Amino acid sequence: MSETVRMRLLERFAAAWNARDLDALMDCMAPVCAFHASGGPDASGRVYSGRAAVRAGYQAVFDAFPEAAWTNARHFVAGNRGVSEWRFRGVDREGRRVDVDGCDLFVFDGDLIAVKDSYRKMRSG
Fold first, then answer.
1. 3-state DSSP assignment of residue 101
2. Name one Pfam family in it (predicted).
């Protein structure tokens, strides 16, 4: 697939996050896929493998942050890999505000996302 097609895919994917549209998110994912959340018990975060688990992982993000927006999105693609950089602003279930930069590292399978590996900055002090 061309890098242009994959760039458009990342643009659609980012828009689906802001629309909180699980079906649109999953339309961007390959049949065999994984989501590595930015937090979790393992060094690589919490890993969701398989379409049902990935969908549940994405829903968990929406549940954790009833208010959320990913802004200032910038994407690039190189071969079967891609990166999205963004600013995350949200309010969690306890009312705490979050405002941090982050990125996603992607691996593509054809014209779909096989792996989404998320990273978010953690503020201190």
1. strand
2. SnoaL_2
C-alpha count within 13 angstroms, C-beta hemisphere, residue 50: 2
Cα distances (angstroms) measured from residue 56 to each of 92, 109, 121: 18, 21, 23
- Whole-angstrom Cα distance, residue 49 to residue 38? 15
State the residue range of the domain holding 13.
3-120
Three-class DSSP category at 19: helix
Domain tally for the chain?
1
Q: Is the pTM of this model over 0.85?
A: yes
Q: How far apart (Å, rounded) are the C-alpha atoms in residues 125 and 94?
A: 19
Q: Token match 């659609």: residue? A: 12
Whether residue 96 lies inside any domain: the answer is yes
> Per-residue pLDDT for the chain (125 aa), expressed as one digit of tens each?
689 999 999 999 999 999 999 999 999 999 999 999 998 888 889 999 999 999 999 999 999 999 999 999 999 999 999 999 999 999 999 999 999 999 999 999 999 999 999 999 988 76
CATH number, residue 101: 3.10.450.50
Which structure tokens are listed for 88? 């995350």
